[in-house]
Each structure stands twice: as C-alpha cells, then as structure tokens.
Amino acid sequence: MRKKIFGGETSKTMKKALITGITGQDGAYLAKLLLDKGYRVYGTYRRLSTPNFWRLQYLDIFEKVNLIPADLIDTASIVEAIEISQPDELYHLAAQSFVGTSFEQPIGTGEITGLGVTRILEAIRELNPKIKFYQASSSELYGRGNSRSQNENTPFCPASPYAIAKLYGYWITRIYRQGYGIFACNGILFNHESPLRGLEFVTRKISNSVAKIALGLQKELRLGNLEAKRDWGYAPEYVESMYLMLQKDKPDDYVIATNETHSVREFLEEAFKIVNLNWKKYVKVDKLLYRPLDVERLRGDYAKAKKELGWEPKVKFKELVKIMVEEDLNRWQRWLKGERFPWDAINYPDEHKILSRQYRLDR
Ligand code: NAP
Ligand code: F7E
Known about the structure:
UDP-galactose 4-epimerase, domain 1, binds NADP nicotinamide-adenine-dinucleotide phosphate, binds ligand F7E
C-alpha cells in the first residue's frame, strides 16, 4: 500500500489543480481559467520528439503552468503526476479524442480513452480519495439513438470505438463515485470548438481552408458527410462548466451544450459567406472521408446545468463560425507578412498524403 498524501506543503490557501492533457484545446483554456482564479496549475504532457506547447504559448500561459510528463498507458507516470502536484482537483481531459482515428486505432483508443480513466481513478483511490475528479465525457455517448434532443437521462447508443471507450469512462467514473465515495463528475460535453481546435476536426478544417482559399493559398476543400448535424459551442465557455461542477457540494453528471443543431453544410455556407465566396465552387465530397459509421444528429439539453450550475452558453453558431474564420484569416495574413508565432497549421500534412484503412478499402 502506497503512502497516502493529504493536502500539500506549498501553500495552505492556494488551490491546486492537475489537468491531464494540458496541451490540448480544452486543457489550455482550462489552465488559463484556473490561473485567472488563482490556482496553482499542473498539467501532464506526453513526451514527443518535437514539443507541442503552441496552445499554452498562444494563450500566453506557458511560463505560468507546471508541466509533468505522463502517459495514460503508464500507471506509474500517473501516480507520479499526482504525487508531485498533490491536487485538490483533477481534470481528466487527456484522451485519443478524434473519432476518425478511433476507427483506425480501436485498441489504442480503448487503452487510452477508456482504461486510462480507471488508471487515474485507481491512483486517486490509493493516494488521496479526497481529490475531486472531472471526467471529460462526451455527447458521442448518445451516438445513433433517436431522441430529438439529449439530456442526462437519454439512453446511450455509441457508434464508434471512441464512443464506446468514453462510455466505459463514463460508467467507471460513476462506479468510483458510488462505490468509493469519490467526488467524481461526468461533464457530458457536446462539440465545442475554437481557434485552438485541432485541424483534423471538421470546424477548424473548414475555417483554416476557407482562410487559405480566400488568400489564394488553397484551391479546394475535400470533406466527407455534409449532412451530419452537431450541437457546436465555444470551448472557452465550456471549460468553465468543468470548474463549476467541481465546486458543487455533491458530485453529479451534467450535459453541456447550446440546444441548437446545425449541419456541416450549414457550417460551410456560413464560413464561406464571411469571405464572400460561394462554397459550392470549392468544396468536393470525398467518400474516403466518410466514417464506417457516423452520428447523424446531436442536440443537447443543458437545462440541468443551467439550473444547478448557473451555466449557459453565450456564443452561438454564427458567432462561433465568425470567430474561427476571422482568426485563421488573421493568422495566415500575419504569416504571409513574415511574422512567426506559435501555431499548428504549418505543421499539418495535406490529407491526401495520409494513407489510412479507408484508403485500402477503397482500392
Ligand atoms: P485534444 O485537443 O485532442 O486534446 C487531447 C489531449 O490528450 C492532448 O493534450 C493530448 O496530448 C492528450 N493525450 C492524448 N493521448 C494521450 C496519452 N496516451 N497520454 C497522455 N495524454 C494524451 O482534445 P480536446 O478537444 O481538448 O478534448 C478534451 C477532452 O474532452 C478529451 O477527453 C475529449 O475526448 C473530450 N471531449 C471533447 C469534446 C470537444 O468537442 N472538444 C467534446 C466532448 C468530450 P498531445 O497534445 O501530446 O496530443
Ligand atoms: O466531426 C463530419 C463527420 O471530427 C463532426 C470530438 O471532439 O466531438 C468531436 O467528435 C462531423 C462528423 O467531430 C469531415 O463525419 C464531414 O459527422 O469534427 P468532427 P466529432 O466526430 O463530432 C465529440 C463531442 C467528441 O467527444 C470528440 O472528441 O463532421 N465530417 N467531413 C467530417 N469530419 C472531419 N473530421 N473531417 C471531415 O473532412
């Protein structure tokens, strides 16, 4: 049995948070939010051959966070991260988070996105069961169910290796809450986007391509299923809900969404409108970009979060598209003028260079 740690020595008043996946979209925004609230912030990152701290640099918080190397498949590194940081609150955001990749890497996704949750909960149970725990659950849990909108009582119907791994994470979180009395919450977050979104996700793929097309740097945009509908919100607002959940007296699960649904096609129309171009001239549907199984329509009912957390979204669909397209346009213009800054777009390969399982099935 390992020695238990209770509280920390560094400061009796300053709250400490450990964020797994601090290099990701939500990790970076949450780190900023917690720093602004006076927390000491620790974050785990993966050792990579090239460092990946651009989001923390972009938000100008890289110097303010404490970094700890850890990997979700390595229990010892998770234990180490908790022992070093001795957090009051642990926000578990790290995951293989791309649904498309989960079809290519179903086993890895299960290990990381699913079992990774238990590795953390077990470490909490052993080291300090008083740590409050946030699990990044997802609207993908609802998958191909047929309800018009989804709330905390809607049945789950996962439709990808990612979704089933998240379903496991959702239930293990509840089991540790009920079985061991750990303060563990599931935030069932619907899609949330921002200029810090990874470029493989459809919204940022569109905003980045629209900016490049408008500046004559790209000729066409290839996409898969344009009819898929999502409830898209603004990431900086969504991370606030994570914090609010851990400030409650009792742990619970909450849907975080906008209660609106829009198709990929609508996102395209709106994005091209901003640069005064007709999307139909530039977009090609490519069947290689279709998933083996897709989620058709999601719309989240966040009434419980509004009532119990006082949380509600402010940025809605059109404003979100505008924020993303304008920021990508601005980045490419700065880049063309010779300015250099932390940024992901220049490091991404063209999608046609990536040979996936879909590519083989097509031949
Ligand atoms: P993201 O940008 O893809 O970030 C994922 C983070 O996980 C990155 O820091 C990544 O590190 C880290 N990571 C991946 N594999 C890891 C491993 N084996 N060990 C340790 N760290 C690992 O995702 P996000 O959009 O911020 O989402 C945060 C969480 O919310 C994820 O769990 C996601 O599944 C979930 N979620 C997201 C949404 C959404 O719409 N954004 C909605 C619902 C739920 P690298 O930087 O090194 O890759
Ligand atoms: O796809 C369609 C695609 O990859 C949205 C993750 O954060 O949110 C995210 O998962 C829709 C799908 O996000 C392309 O088929 C069409 O129907 O942006 P996405 P996602 O799969 O909804 C949930 C809540 C999470 O939890 C996940 O971590 O867009 N689509 N054409 C395309 N999608 C992509 N990526 N690329 C296309 O070319």
